[in-house]
Amino acid sequence: MTVARTEPLRTRAVEGLPADFVWGAATSAYQIEGAVAEDGRTPSIWDTFSHTPGAVANGDHGDAACDHYHRMPEDVALLADLGLDAYRFSLSWPRIQPGGKGPANARGLAFYDRLVDELLARDITPWVTLYHWDLPQELEDEGGWPVRDTAHRFAEYAGIAADALGDRVTHWITLNEPYCSAMLGYYVGVHAPGRRHFPDFTKAAHHLLLGHGLAAEQVRARAARPAEVGITVNPVVAQPFSDAPEDVEAARRADALGTRLYLDPLVHGRYPEDLLADLAPHRAEPPVQDGDLRTIAAPLDFLGVNYYFRDVVRPGDEPRGYRSVPQTDRPSTAMPWEIYPQGLTDLLVRISREYPGLPLYITENGAAFDDTRAAVDATGQIQDPERIAFLAEHLQAIGRARGAGADVRGYFCWSLMDNFEWAYGYAKRFGLVHVDYATQRRTPKASAEWLRDTAAACRQQ
């Protein structure tokens, strides 16, 4: 079921969010850009996967997406109208370095040059994500992330990006959600490249983390301005279905594979012992070489945290050992994902205690609802009270986490606009701005105005 509200929430400052809190919105390259074969861009794994019959709902793909490649100034104007401080976007690796090797593609880089300049001209800070899942297909053909060389190719690409944009960009995110890239792409198979081999998942996870460390070195060394470098993770907020020992054990395993597999090496420079014990019977231990963990654990300037829902689990089949239990009696979004703001508070407080000293930013949080142009009102605005309620409740959850000591410094709403939602195609709408995919017309929703006014109220308190 979905949350139902008949009246929009009154805009007010969110308790616990300071005046210098960063307000932003987020997108990713493949989900919005389109122009997949223009100006030298070559295919990514998501081009291949989305054109594989049965891989994506309704046979959708990102060939056109939101046509952001041609409509970028209009979209930056939307950001400015929202009064946002920052915009988190990703670079398309195969647009900047076709094939994942060799020299930079000047025509591809020129697009991001224009985007960064457009943002700065409107006093919007660019936050660049180097990798949001669009591995060049040629590198996948050579083995993809389970192959160690891919981490080194990623570092080379990061250096190219830093050379080109590091005179203006100061906030860099190496990877978005390595859990999804590794688990969903190489074991579950529902994301590109669609492989289903458990040891490939752990190899991919390790090489993604190694790629992060190597890329961070390149950005810091080659950016012309001092660079703040971080990574975005989406920790699995695992809770046992009951107090039964087997359910508690399932939650431990989910936490090991979905949270500590990434945060422990990033912050503590080691993989958890219980995780390694779980992986050993499946010959799936991370392929660590000398120096890897030191590279991975280089100090972070910040940690990006993505949160959408918690995961209630029970025992499941090996090798994972757990399975998710849908909470059908709870309010949910259109995905359908359970709406559970307390999970965000709990997650942020936990990170601040177990991985201390890291400035935190919510780099994605948002919700899909069935809002369409049919919901337009007499003023021409699309009413989405469920999304407003979701955003309000999760911003309040961040305020509570700050009150408990979590150093949360900003919030990026997912997403600026409706877009290609991976394996769900265009069926799910997360945007603050509605996109009519037939005409590419953009129409701000009521939630866009609400977020603008809420941010303004917080700045003035």
Summed up, the domain count is 1
Name of the CATH homologous superfamily? Glycosidases
Number of contiguous helices: 15
Radius of gyration: 21 Å
Task: Characterize the structure shown.
- It is a single chain.
- The protein is α/β, with parallel strands linked by helices and 461 residues long.
- Strand 8 (311-315) and strand 9 form a beta hairpin.
- Helix 3 runs parallel beside helix 5 and helix 13 packs parallel to helix 14 (385-403).
- An eight-stranded parallel beta barrel has the order 1-2-3-4-5-7-10-11, surrounded by five helices.
- It has a single domain (22-460), classed as Glycosidases (TIM Barrel).
- The protein has 15 helices and 13 strands.
- It has helices at residues 29-32, 45-50, 68-81, 93-96, 106-121, 137-141, 149-165, 178-188, 198-222, 245-268, 273-279, 292-296, 342-354, 385-403, 446-460, and strands spanning 22-26, 86-90, 125-131, 171-176, 228-233, 238-240, 302-306, 311-315, 322-324, 360-364, 408-414, 433-436, 441-444.
- Residues 1-7 have low confidence and may be disordered.
- Substrate binds at residues 31, 132, 176, 308, 414, 421-422.
- Pfam families: Glyco_hydro_1.
- GO terms for molecular function: beta-glucosidase activity.
- Belongs to the glycosyl hydrolase 1 family.
